[in-house]
């Protein structure tokens, strides 16, 4: 089965700030591909389809899986992320949403 293995987020309004945010919040390592493009390498990605009209976004919603959701919540705040939805439970786990410095919304989740 073919799988999506890459998500690209816009960062034109705050490229360096956005890269620094993800490095600080999640300890991600980036490879620079010029002055305005950086990427992590060697990771895997799953895709979920949200059919709820009142909950789905107009842009893709990358979801980051972590072992300690509460620690990630604190790290995102300390790195300068804006919490869009505080931690909530859903079937299979708990998650929260945040806005990064470029205005992209992402979610972070862990199993229950």
Key attributes of the depicted protein:
112 residues, alpha+beta, four-stranded mixed sheet
Plain-language structure description:
- There is one protein chain.
- The protein has about 110 residues and is an alpha+beta fold.
- It has two helices and six strands; from the N terminus they run αβββαβββ.
- The strands form two sheets. It has a four-stranded mixed β-sheet with strand order 3-6-5-4, covered by helices on one side.
- Strand 5 (about 95-100) and strand 6 (about 105-110) form a beta hairpin.
- Helix 1 (about 15-25) packs antiparallel against helix 2.
- The radius of gyration is 14 Å and the shape is globular.
- The mean pLDDT is about 85.
What portion of the residues fall into strands of 2 or more residues?
Answer: 25-35%
Structural class, please? alpha+beta
- The residue ranges in which pLDDT falls below 50 over 5 or more consecutive positions are none
Strand elements, count = 6
Overall shape: it is: globular
Largest sheet: 4 strands, mixed
Number of helices: 2
Radius of gyration: 14 Å
Distance between the termini: 28 Å
List the helices and strands and how they pair.
Layout (H helix, E strand, L loop, with lengths): L14 H12 L4 E2 L5 E2 L23 E3 L3 H11 L2 E9 L2 E7 L5 E7 L1
Parallel strand pairs: 3-6
Antiparallel strand pairs: 1-2, 4-5, 5-6
């Amino acid at each position: 089965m073919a799988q999506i293995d890459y998500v690209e987020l816009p960062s034109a309004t705050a490229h360096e700030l956005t890269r620094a945010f993800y490095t600080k919040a999640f300890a991600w390592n980036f490879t620079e591909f010029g002055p305005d493009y950086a990427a992590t390498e060697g990771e895997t990605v799953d895709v979920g389809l949200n059919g709820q009209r009142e909950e789905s976004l107009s842009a893709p919603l990358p979801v980051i899986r972590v072992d300690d959701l509460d620690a990630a919540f604190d790290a995102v705040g300390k790195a300068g992320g804006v919490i869009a939805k505080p931690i909530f439970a859903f079937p299979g786990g708990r998650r929260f949403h945040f806005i990064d410095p470029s205005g992209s919304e992402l979610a972070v989740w862990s199993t229950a």
